[in-house]
Amino acid sequence: MVNSDYRALALDVDGTLICPARKKVEAETTAALKKLQADGVVVILATGRSCFASTGEILGTDFIPDWRVCVNGAQILDASGTIVHEQRFSAAVVEDITAFTTPRAFPLTFTFEDAYYVYSEYEAFVKHYTANAGTVPYLRDGSDRKRHLSSLPYGAYIWMPAEYRNELAGLCPDIKLMETYPDSFDVSPLDADKRHGVEWILSRLGIGFDRLVAVGDSENDAGLLEAAGLGVAMADAPEHIRALADHVTGSARDNGVASVIKRFFGD
């Protein structure tokens, strides 16, 4: 049995479960997560990735989370992989973001249900993700900028100098920009984020935030770390993320998630 009052665990993916030095989830972590589930703890992946990029096959594990909060809360999936809740950009937001980034040659990709479609600087994205993740089968050339005419995206990812952040936010008041790496921004609908996504799940399970452990490393984890009964930051998270956490664990390279499970959930 779990020796803990915590009944749920929410985990970021990039920089938390995996990193460039460890591109797949460690076997030790997989085993610990399965044991938590067997003991009745709800395990939630909370990621900026889309559903197709957050599967066990992609992450190198046969572990199946109870829930997935994807695209920073704009997609929520149950254990079967069914999308049970979603939020999308409006067509006007897509067009405003595109009009802002394209003339400045800022790399821009939108997240749809089937793939990431790169509206600007496709080759730059291919080069980056090939170097960091190997093959990227879910990246598509969307330079004709028509994909949103079929269905609207859940979010976007932009590489741009940070000084442009406020200008874009002022142009598009219905979006939220979160810096995930220097000069790299996840963009979501204004009221979609990991905290609200996890709250949607917990409210249906009758579990309070006080019984949640949340682990992350970036700005898009900040609200969730603050709301959780125990917020845990990775050792290599930015200083302001570590400062708001209740505890700092080892890096993804050092398998920090397994350490969190052992320390706060017990044997």
Structure description:
- It is built from nine helices and 14 strands.
- The protein is an alpha/beta fold and 267 residues long.
- The chain has two domains: 8-86 and 192-265, 3-Layer(aba) Sandwich (Rossmann fold), CATH 3.40.50; 91-189, Hypothetical Protein, Haloacid Dehalogenase-like Hydrolase, Chain: A, domain 2, CATH 3.30.1240.
- It is globular, with a radius of gyration of 18 Å.
- The protein has an eight-stranded mixed beta sheet with strand order 5-4-3-2-1-12-13-14, with helices on both faces.
Element-level helix/strand string: EHEHEEEHEEHEEHEEHEHEHEH
CATH class of the largest domain: Alpha Beta
Distance between the termini: 7 Å
- Radius of gyration from CA coordinates: 18 Å
- Report the CATH superfamily of the largest domain: HAD superfamily/HAD-like
* Extended strand count: 14
Main sheet: which strands, in order across?
Answer: 5-4-3-2-1-12-13-14
Give the number of helices.
Answer: 9
Count of separate structural domains: 2
Secondary-structure-based class equals alpha/beta
Poorly predicted residue ranges: none
Coarse shape:
globular
| CATH arch. level architecture of the largest domain | 3-Layer(aba) Sandwich
| CATH topology descriptor of the largest domain | Rossmann fold
Strand content: 15-25%
Question: What is the helix content?
Answer: 25-40%
Q: Biggest β-sheet: count, sense, barrel?
A: 8 strands, mixed
Average pLDDT number: 94
